[in-house]
Amino acid sequence: VISGCGKKKTPPIKKVSDLGIAAVQGNDYALNTIKAVEALGGMETFVGKNAKVAILANPQRNNPGTYTKPQILQAVVQMCKEAGADEIACISQLPLQNWQATGLKQIVDDEGIELIIVDRKDNSQFKTMPITRGVALKEAEIMKPLFDCDVFIDMPVTKDHAGNKFTGTMKNLMGLSSGSTNRSFHKKGWQTEINAIDHLDQCIADLNTIITPDLCITDATEIITTNGPFGPGELIKPQKVVAGTDRIAMDAYCCKLWGLKPEDILHINKGFAHGLGEIDAAKVKINEMSV
Question: Of 45, 63, 44, 53, which is closest to residue 91 (Cα–Cα)?
Fold first, then answer.
């Protein structure tokens, strides 16, 4: 399992059940992010001195509700620096113009961190990993920069998706796998046919069995509830940032923000079946606050 490979001095991570999740609401998205991570024990819980940190934000489009907010990325980067990180890089397969159009490249430049853009068509930039627990997906090509990090932070935006209706922490990890791997997720009819949608969701859950983020921070400040993942779409503004290590609990929480039921989202259920987290909110420590 790839999990912030821990080559340098990284602190022990508490059990998922101990940390729970934190959801902070307010119109200062940087402050929301800081308070959410503080509720989990602070960034030093996840990032040790001299650690090399890889961040997977989502700059998919610049339509409202389709990309990780720059303020959230900046808060995370600054907290990593304060915790003693030696190197911080955003890793991506999306082109530079996406980073520029969303304002995320400006944060990279302002904070003096690295932006590593991998060519999704260049197989030499990926490492093939077996998925021993995979039901539909038996192997995946994962971008090599992930293997160089000590700490991996997953930073999705939660929103609508044309096929499986919901994207969050679990689906964001498709941003780490090659174009050929991701194409195998999408069978004919992946937007409309139940078997093809089931296959897509199973592949997402299977991929998550080999990649375990050390920390997830979800942008739920603005959510497109239609025409995802690219938008533009109908927009709601919960103004929340959600942090935690339990991907199932976080995605279950976020889908409820716009009236979805976790039990109706196939990859959340399949991830729960894989033992990746807790789907029952009654069994999760949820720290909600407003700032």
Answer: 53
Nearest Cα neighbor of 54 from 111, 134, 114, 138 is: 114
Q: How far apart are CA 222 and CA 237, in angstroms?
A: 4
76/269 Cα distance (integer angstroms): 29
| 232 Cβ contact list (under 8 Å, min separation 6) | 63, 64, 224
What residue has token string 């990649």? 211
Whole-structure pTM value: 0.94
Residue 9 structure tokens: 């001095």
Alpha-carbon distance of 189 to 179, in angstroms, equals 18
- Inter-axis angle of helices 266-273 and 247-256, to 10 degrees? 160
Q: What is the pLDDT of residue 8?
A: 45
Give the span between the Cα atoms of 15 and 144, in whole angstroms: 27
The one-letter amino acid code at 259 reads: G
Contact criterion met (CB below 8 Å) for 153 and 217: yes
**What is the per-residue DSSP string for 54-89?**
EEEE--S-SSTTSS--HHHHHHHHHHHHHHT-SEEE
Element containing residue 183 per DSSP (H, E)? helix 179-185
Mean pLDDT of the 3-12 span:
45
Q: Please report which confidence band the pLDDT of residue 127 belongs to, taking 50, 70 and 90 as the band edges.
A: very high
Provide the b/e sequence for 85-117 (b: ≥16 CB within 10 Å): bbbbbbbbbbeeebbeebbbbebbeebebebbb
